[in-house]
Automatic annotation (TrEMBL):
Bilayer-crossing regions: none
InterPro entries from the UniProt entry: ASHA1/2-like_C, START-like_dom_sf
Annotated Gene3D superfamilies: 3.30.530.20
Activator of Hsp90 ATPase homologue 1/2-like C-terminal domain segment(s): 22-159
Pfam families with a match to the protein in the record: AHSA1 (PF08327)
Family: Belongs to the AHA1 family.
The name this protein goes by in its record: SRPBCC domain-containing protein
SUPFAM superfamilies in the record: Bet v1-like
Superkingdom in the source lineage: Bacteria
Length: 162
């Protein structure tokens, strides 16, 4: 299992997940840079993702939906704010409606994904910073830790296919 640590901190409004992959940063980065690969790991295993738009550059957007086992679609979007290829990706992450407009009643977060080379591959740190403690609590109650851990743990299977 790639996920090695999960922490949440209400004082800093953060949820941080750390994972280790037996692949170089280029290979891990490629998963996020390619919408077809991103679909295979974004969302929990039983909620497959479909990426609709994918512009991984500052000012770009990534829109997607995840489909539940019952066929219900859950939409989201990223507003990409910074990209340091192979090393860092920053974006605002939001829940979205059917037209991929931000759902203001749901919490958004600023996400900072960092990828660093290690002796055995790549250490990825996934940090989400919420606007309020209520927003952090809301997503924790929704099962974001379990869902995100399940999603990240799918990366090993994708890496093994290449």
């Amino acid at each position: 299992m790639p996920v090695t640590d999960t922490t949440q901190n209400e004082e800093t409004l953060t949820l941080t997940i750390v994972a280790e992959f037996a692949a170089p940063p280029q290979r891990v980065w490629d998963i996020y840079a390619d919408p077809r690969q991103l679909e295979q790991i974004w969302g929990p295993p039983t909620y497959p993702a479909t990426v609709v738009d994918h512009s991984l550059e500052p000012g770009g957007r990534v829109t997607y939906f995840m489909t539940s086992p019952e066929g219900e679609k859950f939409r989201g979007l990223w507003e990409v704010t910074a990209v340091d290829r192979l090393k860092r990706l920053e974006f605002r992450d939001y829940f979205a409606d059917e037209d991929f407009a931000i759902v203001e009643s749901m919490p958004g977060s600023r996400c900072i994904y960092t990828f660093e080379e290690t002796e055995t591959g790549t250490r990825a740190t996934y940090e989400s910073v919420f606007d309020s403690v209520e927003g952090l609590r809301t997503v924790l109650e929704m099962g974001v830790v379990e869902g995100t851990t399940g999603a990240i743990n799918q990366i090993d299977d994708l890496l093994a296919q290449q």
